[in-house]
Each structure stands twice: as structure tokens, then as C-alpha cells.
Amino acid sequence: TARGGLGVNDNKFNSTVFLLTGIPGQEDVHLWISIPFCLIYVISIVGNSVILFIIKTDPTLHEPMYIFLSMLAITDLGLSISTIPTILGIFWFNSREISLDACFAQLFFIHSLSFIESSVLLLMAFDRFVAIRDPLRYASILTPPRIAKMGLVCVLRGVALIFPLPFLLKRFQYCRANVLSHSYCLHQEVMKMACSDITVNSIYGLFIIVSTVGLDSLLILLSYVMILKTVLSITSLAERLRALNTCVSHLCAVLLFYTPMIGLSVIHRHGKGSSPLLQILLGYIYLLVPPLINPIVYSVKSKHLRARIIRVFVK
Fold first, then answer.
1. In this protein, which residues make up the domain named G-protein coupled receptors family 1 profile (predicted)?
2. Contact criterion met (CB below 8 Å) for 187 and 201
3. Closest CA to 200 of 172, 158, 163, 159
4. Domain 33-78+113-167+196-314, architecture per CATH
5. Is 63 in a helix, a strand, or coil?
6. pLDDT tens track for 18-49
7. Per-domain residue ranges for the chain?
8. Which of 42, 137, 259, 284 is the most buried if burial means most Cβ atoms within 10 Å?
């Protein structure tokens, strides 16, 4: 129905669905393209579930570092599950339509889980800082109740900041040809489909990015500066390398998460002339690669975890 002074002729644009995009120009081979996507999902879900199962069932792994790792695995699982229906729907059944409500629900989960992941990466940086700076008091600083409170704050922050977005989007009138450039819904893209004034959404979106990703990445950088200072004060070279080695997997997780996320944000805000394919590729990397690679990196780098995983599968 036409509302808000739109003429009868505009009815066809005042759509109640958005159209998602797979990989433009490759529609004929979508079924083949779905094979790597399925593999990525299977490996992500199995990898993160195995890590969760092993950390839960092995009492020797109930240490702060592994508790934070299990938080990361839960968030990665959530991110994978929230994008599966629409991505595989496009590649398998060519179902590109998504209702406004389903789209708003999906973007709520994608954004809140992304910001929770950002917070968890910050907690993991703090964990590494405490472990290297004050190893003797490590267990007494990061006690399970304290870790639980930190985890709860992360979840509440992610959910509270994203909660208004679906409601802010719902009040808009959508009368453009509602084709989104990804296989899932993102706030910065959906708001551009509105033919209303999006200033509030734009400012609020920028505020969220700065107060989560901006702040977290700055604090992670700061904790690594402090870690480096501590490491350089250690006299033995072997000890230095050992201390730095405990940070490698976390650094990989940080780079994997922030690089495509910041790239995608910049392209959506300023990349008017950027290649659509680059935007689509970054979108897939941002949501699919961290859940896939994180369990692999941590299993390879942590001897303890690796030994437990081998024992489970060799049994």
C-alpha cells in the first residue's frame, strides 16, 4: 500500500520485501559456488562445536584463556548460523526475497554478534596482558565469577546498542528498488533503501561503530603496546619469544576480524566508485572467514588443546 503522500503509481516500489544478491553475473554457477560455502559452514560449525565440547568436558582447560576462547567460539557459531539461511537459500534455491521483518531480525543478530565478538577479542587481549605482566596473580585476577561478569557486560553492550536499529528502520518508508548488494542484511545498506530522512540512523550507526569497534581496537592496540613493553624488559631471549608466542593466535583472530569489518564500513560510507565485487567479497570474508579460521588457528597454536582434540578423534 502507498503511504506518506506517495502516488498510486509508486505502489509497486513500496515493497514489503528486499532482494538479496548472490554473486552478480555468476547465477548459472550458483550451485557450484554453494559447495565451498557449504564446506566453510560445516568446518566452522564443527570446529567451533568441537572446541566448546573439549573445553567444557576437560577440567584442565577451565582456565581464563580457554574460557575466553569458548566465548569466541559461541559468538562465531552464532554468526555462522545467522547467515546460513539467506546465503545458502540464494545459492541452492535462488530464493532472493526476504521480508522486512526477517531482514531486520537478521541484521540485529549479525551486528550484535559482531560487536560481542569485538568485545571478546578485547577481553582476550586483556587476558594476554595479565598473563604476561603478572603471571603469579593471573588466576586470582581473572577468577571465574569475574570472567562471567565481563562476558555478561559484552553481551549486554552488543545487544543494547543494536536493539534500537530494527525499530529505527521499521519507521521508514521503503519505495526504492530494494536490491541489497549482499546475501544477508546489514544496517548500513538497508537504511539507504529508505526514501525517508536517514540522518538519525546514519549518526547512530557511526556512534555504534566508534563506541564498539573503534574503542575496542584502540584498547587492544594499547594492551599490545603494554605487552611489548613487558616482553622487552625480560632479559632471556627464549622467555621473550615464549611470551610473544602465546599472543600469536589472538593477533591472527584480531586481524581476521577487524580488517574486513573496517574495510566494509569504509566502502559502505565512502566507496561510491568502488567495485561491487570487492564489496561482496569483503562482506563474505567479514562474516565467514573468522568463524572458519579461529578454531583452526587456536587448535594449531595451543598444544594442550591440540592434544585433547587428537585424543577425542583417535579414541
1. 47-298
2. yes
3. 172
4. Up-down Bundle (1.20)
5. coil
6. 999 888 777 778 888 899 999 999 999 999 99
7. 33-78+113-167+196-314
8. 284
